[in-house]
Design brief:
This protein is of the alpha/beta class. The protein has a single domain, classed as Double Stranded RNA Binding Domain. It is built from 3 helices and 8 strands; from the N terminus they run αββαββββαββ. The chain has a 5-stranded mixed beta sheet with strand order 6-5-4-2-8, with helices on one face. Strands 3-1-7 form a 3-stranded mixed beta sheet. A hairpin with an 8-residue loop joins strand 4 and strand 5. The protein is elongated and about 65 Å long. The N and C termini lie far apart (64 Å). The N terminus is likely disordered.
Length: 211
């Protein structure tokens, strides 16, 4: 039995759009780097990087070539450095999610659109030698964008853009909160020299991963 005219046109358009083949998954994205920035050196013996174990805290809806939880971890590893002192610090990724929802339904000749939202929240806790709390700083950002519901590759690029924007914003907000709430713990980087004076590049942060 012949298909109705409208259904036949829709089927032809869908076949043409995907070329009759299933799209391959997008390749992983190049991870960001914050290593070119001045390290945030803390007067503590060590820093633990703790990744959330609750899947809901790191839910990432595909296609997503760059996972938000990885961006938050990289930021902590690149920016934080322990230079020695009493106690230790713990960096926790509390939320790192990427969600999608339909913004506008498309028609036969017009593509739909989707709203992409990335949320990142982290917390740095400073503990005494006895393990008691000595201070903390928290930072949270949210970035949202509405993009056309295009091909798999286009949707992946849109998601990567939003995640990178959120990561850059979190880096700025995290440093601001750290300097405001933990000023007494922050120390100049080892070998720091006045601005405009030639000197060596500060060493890369040394981070002890959590057990």
């Amino acid at each position: 039995m012949a298909l109705p005219r409208r259904a036949a046109i829709g089927a032809l358009l869908a076949t043409a759009a995907c070329g009759g083949r299933e799209e391959p998954p997008p390749p992983p994205a190049r991870p960001p780097s914050f290593g070119h920035l001045t390290p945030l050196t803390l007067a503590v013996a060590r820093i633990e990087i703790i990744t959330p174990t609750d899947p809901a805290a790191t839910r990432t809806m595909p296609p997503a070539p760059l996972a938000p939880v990885d961006v938050v971890r990289i930021m902590a590893e690149d920016r934080l450095s322990a230079v020695g002192g009493p106690g230790h610090a713990r960096f926790r990724t509390q939320v790192a999610t990427l969600s999608r929802e339909t913004a506008a339904a498309g028609g036969v000749f017009t593509p739909g659109s989707e709203r992409i939202t990335c949320v990142m929240r982290c917390r740095l806790e400073v503990l005494t030698e006895e393990g008691g709390p000595a201070g903390f700083a928290e930072a949270e950002v949210r970035r949202t964008a509405v993009r056309p519901m295009g091909s798999l590759a286009e949707r992946a690029r849109a998601a990567e853009e939003v995640v990178r924007q959120a990561g850059d914003a979190l880096n700025i907000e995290f440093e601001f909160q750290l300097r405001r709430n933990l000023r007494a713990v922050i120390q100049p980087p080892p070998g720091a020299v006045p601005a405009g004076t030639p000197g060596e590049v500060p060493p890369r942060p040394v981070i002890e991963p959590a057990a």
